[in-house]
Amino acid sequence: MLKITQETLGVGFIGAGDIAILHAAAVKKVPGAKLVGLWNRSQDRATARARDFGCKNYANPEELVSDPAIDAVFVLTNLESHLEYTKLALAHGKHVLVEKPVGMSVDEIQQMKTLADAKGLTVLPGHNYVYESSMIRTRELVEGGDLGTIVSAYVMYNIHHPEEVAKRYPGVVRQILTHHSYILLYLVGAPVELCAMKANLHYKEFQEEDIAMVQMRLKNGALAHFCASFAADDHAADPWTVMVKVIGTAGSTRYSYRDHVEIKPGLVHSQTYTAYAGSVANEVKHFLVDCLRLGAPPLSSLADAITAQKMIEACEESIRTGSVVKM
Ligand SMILES: NC(=O)c1ccc[n+]([C@@H]2O[C@H](COP(=O)([O-])OP(=O)(O)OC[C@H]3O[C@@H](n4cnc5c(N)ncnc54)[C@H](O)[C@@H]3O)[C@@H](O)[C@H]2O)c1
Q: Using one digit for the tens of pLDDT, what is the confidence trace for 285-327?
């Protein structure tokens, strides 16, 4: 992979919505990195965000990717446009961080991978949850055999999203189970079969699901479970706001968003779960420093994004056919 050696590593944002706020804060924390500028489709938001972030406002995406001061482009638009802007940035020799879900289909993600490989550039999927010390430690324990035989894994998500926020995204199968899929891959590996169900419990007009659950069998025979819900917060003791568990015959691990909570709204969340911004900061640091400066491979790659997308499509097939789907 091409390494970046010049003193200042320049970053440009394509898309400046909610998630751009976390990425801008994250870039600011990385020594030697600078947010040079952004482009956003609507000019009123572009102007406001460029002022807030203290960076340039490009007239169009072509101008941004042609700027020699930019080494890496963050694609932070909606899912449907990720392929177009990732290809544009790669064609201009820029490394890319693309938010999740990375693409609309396996073929779209494969196109990104083929182009990135051909150019020797890094494309880092926005798989932020794995860039947490607790996740990394869990993987080390699993890989080292310290948890014994893995018997089960759980990824739970229960964060209420009002309809006006949820309708900017796909349903929770694509929007949230994508997170669950790459987390499972990173910690314990891919499933061999799965079955999924979904429901819509609180949207009035938005037609997509606000809750989905998945049961899976892993290669070694262990079982895994996903829950993704925009339908309600979990207010009970030790809540499953975001909870990841791996249980083995010789030990078990837990990661929870509730380990650090600030009593103030966090973007679209009712409270600030510190790990949300923290995991994006860790991911951005990994991309800019470990991958681009030092040439390390990403903790979670485009190949993982392809497998995660296959899991999502298997969930959709299971929901459509009411059956267990082999992977
Ligand atoms: N990693 C995470 O935890 C996380 C959390 C939230 C969102 N995301 C992802 O980040 C991306 C953006 O989400 P957001 O919450 O910032 O959404 P948002 O709606 O706040 O912002 C999206 C921005 O993209 C622009 N846009 C929309 N369609 C476009 C198009 N076709 N071409 C160019 N620009 C377009 C809009 O003008 C807007 O400014 C999505 O892919 C989403 O899934 C990831």
A: 999 999 999 999 999 999 999 999 999 999 999 999 999 999 9
The dotted CATH code for 131-280+309-326 is 3.30.360.10
Q: Closest ligand 1 atom to the C-alpha of 42?
A: 37
CB 193 within 8 A of CB 324: yes
Decide yes or no: CATH 3.20.20.450 for domain 9-126.
no
Q: What DSSP state is assigned to residue 266?
A: B
Structure tokens, 194 = 């799965």
**Separation of 149 CA from ligand 1 center, angstroms?**
40
Is 19 near ligand 1, meaning CB less than 6 Å away? yes
Cα(270) to centroid(ligand 1), Å: 19
Distance 322 CA to ligand 1 centre (A): 31
Kindly report, residue by residue over 185-227, the tens digit of the pLDDT. Answer: 999 999 999 999 999 999 999 999 999 999 999 999 999 999 9
**Nearest-5° Cα angle at 114, 108 to 120:** 135
* Span from the CA of 88 to the centroid of ligand 1 (angstroms): 17
Torsion, Cα 186 191 194 198, to 10 degrees, reads 10
For residues 191-205, one letter each, b for 16 or more C-beta atoms within 10 angstroms of the residue's C-beta and e for the rest, the string is beebbbebebebbee
Ligand 1 contacts CB of residue 279 (under 6 A): no
Tell the residue nearest (CA) to atom 6 of ligand 1.
Answer: 19
